[in-house]
């Protein structure tokens, strides 16, 4: 249109009018560009409110890529693919003012932890890794992953921008995409509109094999140590190259249960350090503060142990990190909405909201205790070198 205006100008139309029109067009183009360069919220991108339906894995991946393309502080890495060809990704999120590359951050962390040789860096960050939906039909956490990503990519969020000054966040939105899409497809085929909250209806009765396991019906939350599955072996290459200070494994339990977070149930394994035990209490108190303010039910210490080494909380613990499981009421039977035993309605929206809250609280706790976290992590490995606790290297 601007070009047409220039070609069609006549003596009756001065150059000033043409330039005004050009100015308007350019201004509108800039506004459109700036808007497209700002990350969309999940609701804006998906076209529906989070919690209204289950999101297929490919849409989750597309959302993560959209945020990364609109932000210089979000970096999406594909670390592998599933047996059915779905991409396995993580998002690495830094502060917008951070001048270090992702690789420089990783290398500095490994050097400062004593896991790699090199010149000691001047600055370091607490690394928090949040892993969602290792069990595909424990579905709310992948929805929460999108909301958490937006919270830390949104530069107008004063809290998260402050926390990112001392932390780096890694989000794996779905560790088991094949199982997740198996569940999402089941619910898409059987669910009613509006959703039925009656647990006896078909949409709440997922058939075998269900979405818990991967393509070969293997439970990926038993495989961290043994690496028998494609998803695990690819993920562990990335995990072991980063060795985060904190790792959270998101789950769901029976829909009649409240929320579970650390501290874990006793007895603790002998090798779990006093600091790892102490931080379980620190982070549990921070979560409690948020849950108490919202009158949300939760429990700690009753069950979920830290003994078997192949879980997503224990493998990190035995490698120096603070490993934790978070469990929200839900599971395959919960669907979009479910009437619980106390005649309350549990919704997908509330489930993902609780997971989103503990994600924020985890990063906040890392921010507050950054120096101690880094110090204790380094000590964990220094101690093994200087005073081995057994004859075994690993």
What do these coordinates show?
By secondary structure, the chain is of the alpha/beta class. It is 42% helix and 14% strand. It contains 13 helices and ten strands. The strands form three sheets. Strands 1-2-4-3-5-8 form a six-stranded mixed beta sheet, sandwiched between helices. Strands 6-7 form a two-stranded parallel ribbon. Helix 6 packs across helix 12 (348-368).
What would the keywords be for this entry?
394 residues; alpha/beta; 6-stranded mixed sheet; two-stranded parallel ribbon; 13 helices; globular; disordered N terminus
Care to give the gist of this entry?
This protein has 394 residues and is an alpha/beta fold. The protein contains 13 helices and ten strands.
The parts where pLDDT drops under 50 for at least 5 residues are 1-12, 32-36
What's the number of extended β-strand segments?
A: 10
Strand order of the largest sheet: 1-2-4-3-5-8
Shape: globular
**What Rg is obtained from the alpha carbons, in whole angstroms?**
24 Å
Assign the structural class, choosing from mainly alpha, mainly beta, alpha/beta, alpha+beta, or little secondary structure: alpha/beta
Number of helices: 13
Largest sheet at a glance? Answer: 6 strands, mixed
Mean pLDDT, all residues: 91
Q: SSE order, as H and E?
A: HHHHEEHEHHEHHEEHEHEEEHH
Binned strand content:
5-15%
- Helicity range: 40-55%
Distance between the termini: 69 Å
């Amino acid at each position: 249109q601007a070009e047409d205006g220039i070609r069609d100008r006549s003596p009756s139309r001065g150059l000033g009018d043409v330039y005004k029109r050009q100015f308007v067009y350019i201004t509108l183009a800039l506004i459109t560009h700036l808007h497209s360069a700002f990350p969309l919220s999940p609701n804006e991108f998906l076209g529906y409110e989070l919690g209204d339906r289950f999101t297929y894995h490919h849409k989750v991946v597309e959302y993560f890529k959209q945020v990364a393309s609109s932000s210089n502080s979000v970096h999406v890495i594909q670390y592998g693919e599933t047996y059915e060809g779905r991409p396995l990704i993580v998002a690495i999120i830094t502060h917008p003012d951070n001048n270090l590359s992702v690789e420089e951050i990783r290398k500095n962390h490994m050097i400062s932890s004593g896991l790699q040789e090199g010149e000691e860096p001047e600055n370091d960050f607490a690394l928090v890794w949040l892993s969602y939906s290792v069990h595909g039909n424990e579905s709310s956490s992948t929805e929460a992953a999108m909301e958490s990503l937006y919270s830390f990519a949104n530069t107008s969020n004063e809290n998260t921008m402050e926390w990112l000054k001392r932390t780096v966040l890694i989000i794996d939105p779905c560790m088991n995409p094949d199982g997740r899409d198996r569940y999402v497809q089941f619910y898409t085929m059987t669910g009613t509109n509006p959703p039925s909250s009656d647990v006896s209806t078909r949409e709440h009765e997922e058939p075998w094999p269900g979405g818990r396991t991967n393509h070969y019906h293997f439970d990926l939350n038993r495989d961290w140590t043994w690496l028998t599955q494609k998803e695990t072996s690819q993920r562990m290459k990335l995990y072991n190259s980063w060795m985060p200070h904190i790792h959270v494994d998101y789950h769901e339990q029976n829909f009649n249960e409240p929320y579970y977070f650390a501290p874990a149930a006793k007895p603790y394994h002998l090798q779990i350090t006093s600091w790892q035990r102490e931080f379980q209490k620190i982070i549990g108190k921070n979560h409690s503060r948020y849950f108490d303010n919202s009158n949300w039910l939760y429990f700690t210490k009753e069950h979920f142990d830290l003994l078997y080494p192949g879980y997503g909380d224990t493998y990190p613990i035995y490698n120096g990190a603070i490993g934790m499981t978070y469990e929200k009421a839900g599971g395959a039977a919960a669907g979009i909405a479910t009437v619980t035993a106390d005649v309350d309605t549990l919704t997908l929206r509330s489930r993902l909201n609780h997971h989103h809250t503990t994600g924020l609280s985890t990063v906040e706790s890392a921010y507050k205790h950054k120096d101690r976290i880094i110090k204790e992590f380094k000590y964990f490995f220094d101690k093994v070198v200087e005073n081995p606790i057994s004859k075994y290297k690993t």
